[in-house]
Structure formats: C-alpha cells, structure tokens
Amino acid sequence: MIEGVKQQKWWGWGEDGKSYSHHDKPKFAPFVKKMVGVDITAAVPPSPRFDDLEVPASQLGEGLRGELVAILGEEFVQTDDETRVVHAFGKGVRDLMRVRAGQLGRLPDVVLYPGSQAEVERLVDAVIAADGVLIPFGGGSNIVAALEAEPGETRQVVSVNLGRLSRVLEIDESSGLAHIQAGVFGPDMEDQLNAQGWTLGHHPDSFVWSTLGGWIATRSSGMQSDKYGDIADIVRGLTMVMPGQVLTLRPLPSSSSGPSVREMVLGSEGRLGIITSAWVNVHRLPEVRELQSYFFATYEDGLKACEQIMASDAAPMMARVSDAVETQYIMANGKKSSRIGSLSSKAIQKIMEAKGWDLEKIAMSFVGFEGSPTHVRYEKGLVSRIVKANGGISVGKGPGTLYDQKKYDTPYIRDFMLDRGLICDVSETTTPWAYAEQIHTNTVARFQKAMDEIGVRGVVFCHLSHSYHSGACQYFTFAIADDSENQMATYDVAKRVIQQSFMDNHGTVSHHHGVGEEHSPWMDQDISPAGVFIQRKLFDGVDPGHHLNPGKIIHEGRPGISSNSQDA
Amino acid sequence: MIEGVKQQKWWGWGEDGKSYSHHDKPKFAPFVKKMVGVDITAAVPPSPRFDDLEVPASQLGEGLRGELVAILGEEFVQTDDETRVVHAFGKGVRDLMRVRAGQLGRLPDVVLYPGSQAEVERLVDAVIAADGVLIPFGGGSNIVAALEAEPGETRQVVSVNLGRLSRVLEIDESSGLAHIQAGVFGPDMEDQLNAQGWTLGHHPDSFVWSTLGGWIATRSSGMQSDKYGDIADIVRGLTMVMPGQVLTLRPLPSSSSGPSVREMVLGSEGRLGIITSAWVNVHRLPEVRELQSYFFATYEDGLKACEQIMASDAAPMMARVSDAVETQYIMANGKKSSRIGSLSSKAIQKIMEAKGWDLEKIAMSFVGFEGSPTHVRYEKGLVSRIVKANGGISVGKGPGTLYDQKKYDTPYIRDFMLDRGLICDVSETTTPWAYAEQIHTNTVARFQKAMDEIGVRGVVFCHLSHSYHSGACQYFTFAIADDSENQMATYDVAKRVIQQSFMDNHGTVSHHHGVGEEHSPWMDQDISPAGVFIQRKLFDGVDPGHHLNPGKIIHEGRPGISSNSQDA
Questions:
Q1: Strand locations in B11-138 (E)
Q2: Residues spanned by the domain of A313
Q3: Hey, are the CB atoms on A515 and B258 less than 8 Å from each other?
Q4: Contacts of B533 in chain A (CB under 8 A)
C-alpha cells in the first residue's frame, strides 16, 4: 500500500475490519429467513486468508520495469501479490465470489502510482512502446468487470492507480467551477471543497470508495442528481492522457463544436486514455437541506407521484421511492433504537390501516429539498400537494435523516451475505415514465420465475432512484440463497434475466454502473448494432493496437457474462 | 419546388416577397448613419435576377438518376437550376454575398425529396454504390457553410431535402416524449404539438426556416433553453440512416452505455449519416408565460445579475441582456407606435437620469417566466430582488411581449443591409462566467481595431442569450460598411478577429451554429489537437470513403474561411 492512497480489502468491500452488523436490528434475521429461508444468525466460516491464495507471478519484464522505475521511482512501481490481487478486480459480486474461491484470473503484472500528469504521459508512452496493456484504476468499486485484463492476455498488464492525484487544484468562484485531479476519492474531495464553502453534490452509493476519474469513465450518477445532474452534466472540461498526446477540453458551459468529444470520454472506461483531471460544476453549500419522508399505499402510487413531481414546477434535489419488499427491508434494517424502527409504530400503522392500506404493500419514499428556507418551504408545499393527490402521507424528517447518515454502508452487506451463502447484487436501468411500472413488474416476475425453475430461493426489490423529465432510473437489488458449487451459474441466470428484462421493457443496460464486460452482451440491443459499430470504429481508430483496457464495452471474443461463468 | 416543402428565396433569407422594412421606425436610419455612416434611405439596386446567373449543368449520370427515380419517383428527383442553387448554400452572409455575385461554387447535381425512412435507406445505399456524395438539407438556414460540396468535387453531389418527413408521429403523454420526423420546420412542428396541448419549447432565431434534423445535426439552442435545454438535452432518442445500416437509439432519460452515440450524432453535420426522426422531450403548454423587461445602468451590471440568477433558487425560462449598443439598436428599431419606441419616454428617462445613469450605456434585459400563476409570481420575486441588488429597474411586460412577437424577423435585416452595402453577420460563443465580461470587452475592441486598420466603418454589439450554471452564451452581431470589391476579404478579417478573440478569451467556436467549414480552422484551439484527432478517427472509421458531407467540422484541405475568401 502507498501512503495516502486508500485501498479496499482484497476479498470484499471497503475498509479492513469494517463490516455489516445485524446486532440491534431484531427484525433483520426474521426478514431474511422469511424471504430466502436462510438463518443469518448461524455460525459462519472465518474470513478468507490471503495466504491461502495461489498468486501467479508477475510477468513484468526487466526492460519495462526499468523504464517505469525511472519515470515514477521504485516506491510507485508495485508488483507485490496483495497489491496485484486488489487491482485485479472491481467489487462485483462475481468478483467477490471468484476471489474468495481463489480464482484470480489474469492479474496485472504491475501497479503504478503516478504522482503527476507528466508522469502519466511518460508511463503511457513507455507501456505502449513495450506493447503492454493499460488499465486505469480509481477506487476499485466497479461492479461490471471493467478493471480486469482479458483472460489469456499475453502482453504485460499494467494497472494505473490514480490515487496520488487527489487535489482540488483550483476553484473558479465566479463560474462555480472547480479543477480537480481524477484520483480523488469522494469524501476527500468534498472535504477540500467544503472547506471553501463548496460542494460537488455528487453522491453515488460507492462515494467513499470511488473517485472522480472513475465516475467520469463510467458515467456515474449520485443520489442528488435530480438537482446536481449526472456526472455527464457536472463535468464541463477534462484532461485525458492518450498515447503520444493529451486531450484538453477546456471548461465550457455548452458548445456546438461537432460530435461531443467530452461525451465520448464520459463512459469510455479506459478505452480512449487515462483521465487525469476534470473541471466540474460546484455549488455553494445550501442554506437548508431536508429529506422529507412519505408513505404511499403502493409502489405504483409512489411512481406516479414522482412522475408528477417532475412535470410540476417543483425541482427537489432527490425523489426516491421503494417498492413493497424494499420498504420491508428498510424497516427490518432499522435499529431497535432508531426512528426507522419506530416507523411501524402503532400510531402510523393505525393511520395506514384507517386508510385501508395493506401493510405488506406500502412504499416508503424520501424527497430531498435544498435552498433558502423560503425555497425549501415553497417546494415542500408543491411536493406535499402531489403526495396527497396520490394518497400518500408524510411522516416527517426522521427516517430521511437516518437514511442520509447510513447511505454509504449498504455495500458492506454483500460480504456479510456471501459469508452466509447468499449472493447479493444490484442492477439498475432507466425507462421513459410510460414503462416504469411495467419494467418493475416484469423484472420481478421474470427473476422469480427463473429462480423457481432452478429451484433456489431468491428475492428482488427495487427503488426509483433518479428522475428526469421523461423517465426515471429504477435500482434493483437481488439476493439468492445458493452456497452450492453452482453459485456462479445461478448468479448468471439471475443477472441474465434481469438485464434481458430491461431490454424487453424499454430500459437501458445501465443507468450509472457502466458496461464493462458484464453488460457488453446487451449493447447491440441497447444502442442497436449500428451504435456498437460507431463505438467500435471510435475505439479502433484511437487505439488500433488495443492497448487501452481492451475488451470493455465492446467485447471482441466471448462476452463477459458467459465468458466469466464458463471460467468459473 | 415540391408541394408542401417550404423553400427560402434563392438569394436571401426566408419567404419570397417578405423583407425588412424601416418604415414607421424613424430612429433607425439615423442610428445606422451614426454607427457606420451609411444612408439606408437612399435608392437601392433591384433584387438579383435568377436569369442573370450562370448555372453549371448537373453532372448526374443517367445510371444513378435511373436508380433514384426508381426509388423516389420522377417528381422527387429534381435537377432544375433554381432548386440546385437553393440547395447549394446555407444563409451565411458569405453565402449571400457569393450568390448575389453569381459565384455558385460546386452545386449539387441533384436534389432528392424522400418521403419515408425506407426511401432514405435505399437512396443512401444507391448514392454510396455510385461513389456519390450525400449532403442532408433541412431548412437551409445554416450559416457556417455546412451545406455546400467541396470546391472541385469530382463525384456526383446529392443534396437530400428532408422536407417531406414532417410529421409528429407519436406523443407519449405519460413520459412527455414525442417521436417526430426530422424534416419538420419549427412552426409546423409546434402547430402539430400545440394542437394536442404540448410544446417542444425550442425556439432558435431560425425557427421559421429550420428543421428538427438540422437542429440536431448542428447542436442548436433556442431562446428558452434555460428551461427547456439545448437540443442536446431535448433529444432523447433518434434514428439515423447510415450506409448499409440504420442507427436506432431508443428514447432514454439517461444511460451509462459507453461513449454516448447520441452525443456523437448531435453536431455531426451529416458526417455520420442522415437523421430521419427523433424522440424529444415535450412539455405541457404553460399556464402562464411572461417576459419581464428590465434596465441596468451598464451591460456589466446586467451580466452580473444573470450570473446571480443562475446561482439562485430561481429558474426562469430565459434571461437575456443586451449591451449598450444593442440596446440603442433595439430602441432604434422600435416602431413609432410601439411600446419599445416609448421606452425612451420622458418618464423612464427621468428615472434613469435621477439614478445618474449615462443613457448611452444602459442595458436592456428580458427575463421569461413560465408555470402556474403562483410559480411565476414566486420566481419573479426572486429575480426582482437580484435585479434591484444590481441597481436595475423593471419596466414591465410591454417590451418583452413585442420582442416575443418579432423575434423571428431579425434575419431579414441582413438582406436589407446587403442591398445597401452593409455586411451583417453574427457569431456566438460561451465562456465560464468568470470570462463573460472580458470576452465581450476584448471582442468588441479587437473588431473595432481591425476595422480601423482596414479603414472601414463597422459596429458590433452583443447580448447574453443563454445561461448555464457555470457560464453563458454571448451572441455578437456585427455590421460593416463595405460595398467595394474587397467586401469578402473585409468580412473575413472581421469574422477571423472575432473567432480568434473567442479562442483567446476562454470561449468556444460556437454555442449553437455549429462548425461547418467556417469554424473548422479553430477546432484545434477549441477541443485541442487530440480532440480533433478523436473526431477524425470517428468520421474516418464510419465513412472511410468520405461520402458523407466531407470537409465539414474537420477540413482536410484549406479550411473554410480562407478557402472561400480566396474563391471570392
């Protein structure tokens, strides 16, 4: 590990020693038992031991090593086993299953930690000259297999960790723009911005363990995107190191200068170069920030309310609504002592029952407001009328505040579940509003049918997470009880039916996780074969030797999901 | 001409028989006289006569003609002289000067009017198979030389007029999306949408004479973009016919599916294919729509107010402010009987004088509001406070309403002026807010210096036209008194210093007019050589034979502005 560069545990999400706990959440174990039949209170095997892994040796040649050491210094050219294993994967559940099973795939031969853009330029040229493969690495939180070399890659594989490029370089206070290095992690960046009274307002679930460069390379979106925009809106200019040249896009609010090169770099997942810095929209910290909580009789009522909020004069910073099962999950995850726990309190329950609601079908919603006290009051009034018109009730600020505090802890639960033979993952999509209900109903049904056919127990739930004028993102979480040898195949079936359901119900392959290898089999259906043709021409034209993270987005061989499942 | 397909006059803007008039505008002639020394009341030469042109013969071969007739029918394969001349140019002032002088350049050999997407598919393949060149044509309002074949093009040149593809195909009322054919003109489209209670909200100056497909191909922006977005935001899906295949991007509110193919088609100016339809965001007609007018002591105060409006909780649908000279121009253009004329009325003048304002420096502003009556009142209150904080005064709704009615008539003035030896044109750019004042001051100064050096009289004025979180578009209009043989060279100097000033002051080549050949010399400076490299690889990969509107955006030979000026 390099001082000052955060690194996740090799076998799971986040910080070493930190994990999910169900203590003080008395309803959680019964909820899991009811949903998938697993007793999470039973004893579990100990954490995987690094010493049990068989780590293939680095294939870095002495020639390239010498050049890289000359550019970066010995300390920043790492070939030790743990560093290479950490950089071999993202944190998709497929990655977690494989690394736990000791299936390491094609590890990088070296991990580099450049300390300046000039060093990135020099290392890119050195690696290309040596016919190597370059894979940029941010926080390592990717869940679509965008960080892994191709199986059987014979060239030297170089992972480039941008973690030392972590400074907010400049804030243009008049324009509300900041120039920030690409390797900065979310919390560090916000600390630097907040200290000067500013915020980016970009808060993906992965916030603690992801970087600005990673957000750009994957077209990330944060929880407050309804106000602050997706990363594609936030990024106004950027610098990307390419073989032999540097792309410099100056910060511009808008431009008509041909096909957007900015929008080609966004989502490029390392296939065009290594992003080293970006100019991003930043905002003054809001005077007031409030998350208001509501309940609806059903998820469909909640969807309808969100659609109407988007068509109204109100512009909240977030609007989120969970389906019935996710609502049960949230309430089961509430601490005994917390207000989420008390949501099912007699008083609220009585109101719901009085309204004739089926408590198994209720949908919980959070709507966020920011601005002056007057503005927040005004917008809350607009939203409140829409909530009421759709039969919803307000339950105040408590649950939203708690959600806000705990929002980044969710990913830890996957490791906890995997320890107990439960495969958990997420898939998200957007559709026009007209198909929002349909894609939810059909995706849940197809997942359940597929699990029934295999004969395993599984559960899927969902929330609407981001809204747009013409539609919304729905974010599905699924859990499958399978600790057999067929675990990976079971997962593949689940992932496959969900992604195909997205395609069949007017959705896209991903709203903000990217394509990687995991989603590449659906690209033809998503953007049509001609769209894939255009992307391929772009990649082949810029990188004819396929040195830049080859195989991602457009896969020339076996597509990721089949490929990996056959490897397993 | 084809029935149902609008066509502009061959020698100027818009409808035959319609022109600018200064009658009933007693202050206009003195204003022009004062600014550039030209007496616009003097007698003018008669309009150009088509019969005076020497029109080169069509080089369409019998083979290709036969195939095209088989696909489209005789009526929709036009090779007559006037049709070919109309389709040879856009309406840039360079185009107008050349066509008036009988310098026709490389005319298209044939103009096609397909009636369906299937016909577009068949004609594209036929033209490519015959090694021809395809140039898509919408309303013909382009001002950056994007519609003209390369001088000396030896292959058959085919202009494809999309005007028969003019229907709103479908409105998805739940999603606020409409599927619309690309050849529809602005007013026809709004009529079709309004009839069902909807609007696109996209109102560029060229609205009457431009089409949906043209807006997409050039990254257009309308006057209400602060609310409705640039066309890049509005377009959610599209269909584009490419050689041998059709690109189909389904309507999606947002997506993370690699480099954005949608954003590659936007601004592609015919270099990737022919756009045949698009899915666009549409909105319910607003309950209330108001344009409020304000005055500031100086343009700089007005800029500051717009910047603060964007940083505030208010979100008006437009905010526009004119510099001192443009304010004088607007007032000079007011009809004797109109309220704009009365703006300089004693009462308002007295208020301004009481505030110590220099009446030569005042800046006029329009801010637009839409929504429920409550919402409009709320936002007007927020804006009003910002206007006051910057020393501005409100003068009510009158001037804005009048501006709104006349907003599409401005382009006719260029022909009127050209008749009188005055070259008029526009150039627009965006910068971050931090450089808004600087780019205005420097561009005006450099233009004046350049005109002084040549020894001609010229005037340039400007308004802020579109606002974003991080900056704004400023739209410059210039007029030069030169009816000599050096007219074109004089124009080139003016255009060149303005564009170079944009580059030197943190601006972009264009905010919404596109690149064409006119702006291609500045692309290296705008998006860096690596950005041009990426665009070139995209074009070359998709169209290796350079059949699709070659020479636009990236020019392989002499860049447009020099090229055309040497032709002149």
A1: 77-78, 110-112, 133-137
A2: 288-406
A3: yes
A4: 245, 542
